[in-house]
Amino acid sequence: MTGMPTTSVTHFLQKRVANPLMRRNPLQTLLETRGRTSGQPRRTPLGGKLDGQHFWFVSEFGDKSQYVRNIQANPRVRVRVRGTWRAGTAHLLPDDDARARLRELPRFNGFGVRAFGTNLLTVRVDLD
Questions:
Q1: Looking at beta carbons, which pairs linking 90-99 to residues 24 or more positions away fall under 8 Å?
Q2: Residues in contact with 1: Cβ distance below 8 Å, sequence separation at least 6, in sequence order
């Protein structure tokens, strides 16, 4: 990994170490999208906030995130919050102030997104 840009190191650690461990935690919030090529479910651990019939989160790599690309291809998603799966439709909100939105989300997640994020993007999931 010597010489890798910071985003590559972060991506490697998230994909190969942190995400597989976090997906096993039954209380970890997960976003499930459909692979835009495979059609297979793709589950990504993330942090966010349930607000009534909406779930809000900020993508740290914006349209470079694989799950954001999956949302662009098919906005129907599921979110697991507090152990319960809910279906909904994701909306990418590039005009939203992602830094301000992070201040409304849980601090632990917000810290990581602010520290490693290079292209912040707000996402709102309207739950069924």
A1: 90/33, 90/123, 90/124, 90/125, 91/123, 91/124, 91/125, 91/126, 92/63, 92/68, 92/121, 92/122, 92/123, 93/121, 93/122, 93/123, 93/124, 94/62, 94/121, 94/122, 96/122, 97/122, 98/58, 98/122
A2: 8, 9, 12
pTM over 0.90: no
Between these two residues, 67 and 11, which has the higher pLDDT value? 67
